[in-house]
Specification:
The N and C termini lie far apart (37 Å). 25% of the residues are buried. The protein is globular and about 45 Å long. The strands form four sheets. The chain has a four-stranded antiparallel beta sheet with strand order 1-2-3-4, with no helix packed on it. It has one helix at 167-174; strands spanning 13-19, 22-27, 34-38, 43-48, 52-58, 61-66, 72-77, 83-87, 91-97, 100-105, 112-117, 124-128, 131-136, 140-145, 153-156, 164-165. It is mainly beta. The model has no long low-confidence stretch (mean pLDDT 87).
Length: 175
């Protein structure tokens, strides 16, 4: 309720995901190791001594960008502690929607908004170019071309990629 404020950790963190009472974050003081903070017991636990960015937990899987290996996308099985590469591509950002991970492939020659299954299979191009503002709902993924703050595109989260302009957003802005 905001009345009884307390310091939970004595240093800055980058909170990125919350699942089953655990706040997942990468440390920011000396490393970017993956840690959790148990809200109930007020205890922290380092779960991966590895430099990560933007950890997102879904069930027992923690997806992250691997800082030490050109920001490739990886997944940690929090039960077995196994780490698996999802894609060797350099990733600018990502978002998870059901069985898919949508991410911006960072490339000087071939940048693209990509889609890949959470197990690392079925990689495909959603849209060629540089995109940002990636938002997910149950049915659609929304995104913008970098440098164009007005036009929003979308494609169904599930099924075939079918990118089209989200006209309702443009209509709302022009009113």
């Amino acid at each position: 309720d905001g009345r009884d404020k307390e310091i939970l950790l004595p240093y800055c963190i980058t909170p990125a995901s919350f699942s089953n009472g655990l706040l997942y974050y990468n440390e920011t003081v000396d490393t970017h190791f993956l840690s959790t903070f148990d809200i109930e017991s007020r205890t922290e636990n380092r779960i991966l001594k590895y430099n990560v960015w933007h950890p997102v937990c879904v069930g027992s899987k923690a997806y992250f960008m691997d800082i030490e290996n050109n920001y490739r996308l990886c997944v940690l099985d929090t039960i077995t502690s196994d780490v698996k590469e999802i894609t060797p591509d350099r990733v600018d950002f990502f978002n998870i929607a059901g069985e898919y991970i949508y991410y911006q492939r960072s490339s000087e020659t071939d940048p693209a908004l990509m889609r890949i299954r959470t197990d690392g299979t079925g990689e495909e191009v959603v849209a060629n170019g540089v995109y940002n503002t990636l938002s997910v709902t149950d049915q659609y993924i929304y995104f913008r071309a970098f440098g164009n703050p007005v036009t929003i595109y979308h494609t169904p989260v599930h099924g075939s990629v079918n990118v089209s302009e989200f006209v309702a957003a443009k209509d709302a802005v022009s009113r």
